[in-house]
Design a protein that fits this description.
Order of helices and strands: EHEHHEHEHEHHEHEHEHH
Bound molecules: cytidine-5'-monophosphate
Strand order of the largest sheet: 1-2-3-4-5-6-7-8
Strand content: 15-25%
Shape: globular
Number of helices: 11
Helix content: 40-55%
Length: 232
């Protein structure tokens, strides 16, 4: 899969999600389904969106003992999603177990990417609450290296970190990057943002875009603008 725009479908229900996707009559965007929608509607919503022809990034951020994550990943793999994720903090053993669970009998599997440190965690809260006393940038790169060692395909990170992650883990190691805003758009609650064009320049492989598309007056036009800036 090459560079692509993933729409974060942060909706609370099937109805809202499908009526949003119904607007796209000419293209089938890559869609991110997060915890809110998955917990509200269950695996049926994944099957339904997949059946409509969309690729799916199932953003459930698993983090548990290796055996539990392995079994949960086997279930997600049967849903035939394209990308799954987990918390790198679960350790290298947990990441290896996740990959085992995800790999189907025929050897195929969805891509698996890791969350390093959430963007809601900063240096201060990491030291105070997690007792991790290293520079957060180093922690992020270390977790990315762990993910690579475990065999994962990439990490979620800011576009601003994509270059460093590629430098440490190689160009083929995927960077999936939220925090994207149009130059003339609302920043909202995101702190460190880049435009789709800048994300491309910085080497992001996938941008995850929510409100700049979902809350736009014309979501299809906003999606096309992202594609024009980031992919074309
Ligand atoms: O609406 P917006 O473009 O800010 O949405 C970004 C999406 O990416 C949301 O689904 C958010 O939960 C997700 N995300 C993020 N930062 C991370 C990881 C995920 O914004 N570090």
């Amino acid at each position: 899969m090459g560079r692509d725009v993933i729409i974060a479908c942060d909706f609370a229900s099937r109805e809202q999600t499908l009526s949003f996707l119904d607007r796209f009559t000419e293209e089938k965007p890559f869609v991110k389904i997060g915890m809110e929608l998955y917990y509200a509607e269950g695996p049926a919503i994944v099957r339904e969106i997949k059946a409509r022809g969309h690729k799916i990034f199932l953003d459930l951020k698993l983090h548990d003992i290796p055996n539990t994550v392995k079994k949960a990943m086997a279930v997600l793999s049967r849903l035939d999603v394209d990308i799954c994720n987990l918390h790198c903090a679960g350790t290298v053993n947990m990441m290896r177990a996740a990959l085992e669970g995800l790999t189907r009998a025929d050897g195929t599997r969805p891509l698996l990417i890791g969350v390093t440190q959430l963007t809601s965690t900063d240096q201060e809260s990491m030291e105070r609450d997690l007792w991790i006393e290293k520079p957060i940038d180093e922690v992020i790169l270390h977790y990315a290296e762990n993910a690579k060692d475990a065999g994962l395909d990439g990490v979620v990170c800011s576009p601003l970190e994509a270059g460093k992650v590629h430098g440490r883990c190689g160009d083929k190691f995927l960077t999936v990057t939220p925090g994207v805003r149009f130059a003339d758009g609302d920043v909202g609650d995101q702190k460190r943002v880049t435009t789709p064009e800048k994300a491309k320049e910085l080497g992001s492989d996938y941008i995850v875009v929510g409100r700049p598309i979902t809350a736009a007056e014309d979501p299809v036009a906003a999606y096309r603008r992202c594609v024009a800036e980031f992919v074309d």
